[in-house]
Amino acid sequence: MGISGQRSSVDAVVVGAGFAGLYALHKLRSQGLSVRVFEAAPEIGGTWYYNRYPGARCDVESVDYCYSFDPALEQEWDWSEKYAAQGEILRYMNWVADRLGLRDGITFDTRVTAAVLDEENLRWTVTTDTGEVVVARFCVMATGPLSAALTPDFPGLDGFAGELYHTAHWPHEAVDFTGKRVAVIGTGSSGIQSIPVIAEQAERLYVFQRTPNYSVPAGNRPLTDEDRAQIKATYAERRRLSWRSGGGSPHIAHPKLTMEVTPEERRAAFEKRWELGGVLFSKTFSDQMIDPAANEEARKFYEEKVRAVIDDPEIAELLIPNDHPIGTKRICTDTNYFETFNKSHVKLISVRETPIVSIDADGINTSDAHYDVDAIVLATGFDAMTGALAKIDIVGRGNRSLRDDWAGGPRTYLGLGVDGFPNLFLVSGPGAPAVLANMVLHAEAHVNWIADAITYLDDHGHTAIEATADAVDNWGVELRQRAEATLFPKADSWYTGANVPGKPRGFMLFIGGFGAYLDICADVAAAGYKGFRLI
Ligand code: FAD
Ligand code: NAP
Asked: What pLDDT does 7 receive?
């Protein structure tokens, strides 16, 4: 492949070979469509191909963070830990790809640079950086909500003479920090997972923190044969609960509201969630992300837990967030994060108090000091939700580009379609619950909906499906109203675009819960694709 000027035709082009793209290939193929997948990386995996930093692992339990569409896959694969490490997740994805014979449908090392609509024939002309041109009826953008890594524009970064890493582009060869002075910039999930592991090797570790984050211990542990047998015996029920849940996991919030229970019951509920570990702490009670008083109860419990493991009260003060309600940014899931700051060779630098001014050949200059380091690790996150799509020239009706259309922020209907872009589908992008849910199930749900829509078009003699402008506008209002009814907009998070200088602000996700969202999508389909125009 990749022969300049070569032009072929398929039913569907899928961009990306992460969890979403792989399933899209399998599902659409099994429906009899001809499919080409283009993947910029040399291998499958997406997130799990790139993010191989020390300590990288999932924060949704492995037994839930895996495909559900084929019970045989669930029964045959054995997860070794409650939260599998990056390497194991990548092995799982490769195993699935081999089991389903997916590799021959994927063209690797090939980036899609443009997708242009032929308005008359309603076909997409997809162009790649290897010069290949493919004409397709459908375009499925499985480009990932967290696949465009963000490197801040630190003056002098290019002149740093030491080793420079980004967590989202970690090298394949082993990185050894033994005997080295290392700086980690960023304390989101990636920083918080990697810092304790890097601290085990580094001679000196400087952590540059701008905004402290809430992090709950993972409680990670090996799964026993009994654990696996029990989960496999009850998988169907586990999945049933996940599909109906707020976040795509089988754990249900306490049946009462936070302030309806006695202080003892409340504490017991928080304690139980704390033991469960990680991100689901924000869903202990169903009103925790809505009612400020309820949120404050969770925050106080959290603060007590964290203070108890940090030796130095001044360090604790710096590490405990005070600028956003708990859960309004994704709660991080850690192993020994706060304990790491008790080690004498680990130093926390608050760049809120003393900002990073520049980087030079030897290290990092803050407003009050110079830090000599041998290596810098950027754990500075992503241009989330829209970053990967913005890199592609997607041109729809009237020569209108998606980039221009979204200049004021993304506009979608259900997170699946955009007016002016017929037969172009987004997977796990803005306007859907996406990263607020277990993303493997979320990808399956989106791909299933898309596959059903394609069947419906064919069964009813239509060529294309296109969101109407009204439906897109109304969905935007619904997203905003739902977000404003919660505490989420109170945080400067990547959910709102706040982490990228100059990016338009707005809550980009559907906050109403995974199960509720799936009901809306199903209702739309059942009503003959209400809000879409069938052409
Ligand atoms: P990705 O895995 O991001 O795949 C997108 C692919 O598209 C990439 O391989 C990329 O190279 C390719 N691509 C993009 N643009 C182009 C182009 N123009 N041409 C060709 N190829 C292109 N979610 C959870 O639910 N639970 C977790 O525990 C969890 N942990 C995470 C840990 C980390 C470190 C990160 C960064 C994210 C995590 N997430 C988690 C979110 C995660 O991104 C999703 O769970 C999921 O892996 C996304 O799958 P995807 O296929 O949608 O996108
Ligand atoms: P992130 O949450 O956006 O964190 C980026 C960090 O870098 C923040 O601490 C940010 O500070 C800091 N930063 C950015 N620019 C900076 C600058 N110019 N100067 C100083 N600090 C700067 O990114 P992430 O940690 O990669 O995580 C992104 C998402 O990926 C997560 O929320 C999660 O959904 C997913 N993820 C999951 C896991 C997991 O546990 N399974 C692991 C990694 C990632 P500010 O907060 O002040 O902006």
From this structure: 77
* Residue 4 predicted with pLDDT over 60: no
Q: What's the pLDDT band for 69 if we cut at 50, 70, 90?
A: very high
Residue with structure tokens 């654990």?
227
Count CB atoms within 10 A of the CB of residue 170: 19
Q: 9 — phi, psi (to 5°)?
A: -135, 135
CA 379 / ligand 2 centre spacing (Å): 6
CA 529, CA 533: separation in Å to the nearest integer?
Answer: 8
CA 49 to chain centre: 14
Per-residue HEC secondary structure of 65-112 comes to CCCCCCHHHHHHCCCCECCCEHHHHHHHHHHHHHHCCCHHHEECCCCE
* pTM of the entire predicted model: 0.97
pLDDT for 513 beyond 80: yes
Helix (H) or strand (E) holding 338: helix 337-340
Contact 50/170 with Cβ under 8 angstroms? yes
Q: What integer best gives the mean pLDDT of the chain?
A: 96
In testing the pocket of ligand 2, which one of 86, 210, 282, 494 has its CB within 8 Å of the most ligand atoms? 210
According to the model, what pLDDT value does residue 397 have?
98
Nearest-angstrom CA–CA distance, 246 and 262: 25
314-347: pLDDT as tens digits: 999 999 999 999 999 999 999 999 999 999 999 9
Which residues share a beta bridge with 266?
A: none
Which domains are assigned to the chain? Answer: 7-148+384-534 (3.50.50.60), 149-214+327-381 (3.50.50.60)
Instruction: Report whether 124 contacts 16 (CB < 8 A).
Output: no
Distance CA 136, CA 190 (A): 37
**What mean pLDDT is predicted for residues 435-458?**
98
Contact in structure between 96 and 440 (CB atoms under 8 Å): no
The helix or strand, by DSSP H or E, that contains position 127, with its residue range, turns out to be strand 123-128
Pocket test for ligand 1, best of 37, 44, 47 (most atoms within 8 A of CB): 47
Asked whether 429 lines ligand 1 (CB < 6 A), one says no
Are 365 and 356 spatial neighbours (Cβ–Cβ below 8 Å)?
Answer: yes
Task: Please answer whether residues 33 and 11 qualify as being in contact, where contact means their C-beta atoms are separated by less than 8 angstroms.
Answer: yes
Question: Which ligand is closest in space to the CA of residue 278?
Answer: 2
- Give the C-alpha separation, 315 to 471, whole Å: 49
**pLDDT of 3 strictly over 50:** no
> If you average pLDDT over residues 162-167, what whole number do you get?
98
